[in-house]
Each structure stands twice: as structure tokens, then as C-alpha cells.
Design goal:
By secondary structure, the protein is mainly α. The protein has one domain. It contains 7 helices and no strands. The protein is globular.
Length: 135
């Protein structure tokens, strides 16, 4: 069965690629590293297959909701990066930000660079504006 020629348009990133998949890929590499066992470690954490996890690391797709929750449980950096990308920086506990101040700025810079590659005119939207008050 084929799709009708008229009607709803499929989302631009219906195949799973896009800023979320790229964000997860960068954050996983920062959290776990590029060592050969990283894929097996993340697969154990989430219960996902190794091929699926390889796709997360390469940015071809992002995790589903259940797998995302397991990633957050084992790697707080994933949640921090997601909140920064969603523009919800105020939801990150101040003590967590102070304890991980260096990672905060790296994640913020990472998200901004991902936005620049995708849409240079809107790169400032969703990026952290200032962290002075949190330090």
C-alpha cells in the first residue's frame, strides 16, 4: 500500500535522524568514550541490541522512550544534554551544575554547534544563555 499523494506530510526526520539522534551520539561518546566495549556497556544498560546501540553512537537514530530512561539512569550527562537542548536549563539542579560545571559548558557548546550545523540562523535558540547565576 502506498501513501496518498495528498494529505499530511511526514515529519522531516521521520527516519529517526536529526538533532536528537546527533545529541545522543555526542553525549554517549563523551560519557562512555569510543572504546570498543562502549557499545556493549550501553547495550547492557538499556537492554537494546548492539546494532541499535551502534546506530545511536553513529547518530543514525535515537533511543526510544524506555531506552532513553535507562540511558538517563546510567548516565546523568544524557539528561543534562537533553534539558539544555530543550531550553530547560532551569530544571537542572544548581548543585548538579556546580559539581559538573566543566561538563555543563561542554554540553552547551556541543548543542550550539549542532544547531549551527543544522540551521545557522537559529543557533541561539535553545542554547544556554548564561550560567553565571548557577556557579
Amino acid at each position: 500500500m502506498s501513501f496518498p499523494k495528498k494529505g499530511r506530510v511526514l515529519p522531516a526526520h521521520a527516519d529517526g535522524t536529526g538533532p536528537f539522534a546527533a545529541l545522543i551520539a555526542v553525549t554517549l561518546r563523551q560519557s562512555v568514550g569510543d572504546r570498543p566495549s562502549a557499545i556493549k556497556v550501553v547495550a547492557r544498560w538499556t537492554g537494546a541490541g548492539e546494532r541499535t546501540v551502534k546506530n545511536w553512537f553513529s547518530g543514525k537514530s535515537g533511543p526510544s522512550g524506555d531506552h532513553f530512561m535507562e540511558l538517563v539512569r546510567h548516565s546523568p550527562n544524557v539528561l543534562d544534554a537533553f534539558l539544555i537542548a530543550a531550553g530547560q536549563t532551569d530544571r537542572i539542579a544548581a548543585s548538579s551544575v556546580r559539581a559538573r560545571g566543566c561538563r555543563w559548558s561542554r554540553l552547551s557548546t556541543c548543542w550550539t554547534s549542532l544547531r549551527m550545523r543544522r540551521d545557522p540562523e537559529r543557533a541561539d535558540i535553545g542554547s544556554a544563555t548564561s550560567t553565571k547565576h548557577l556557579r
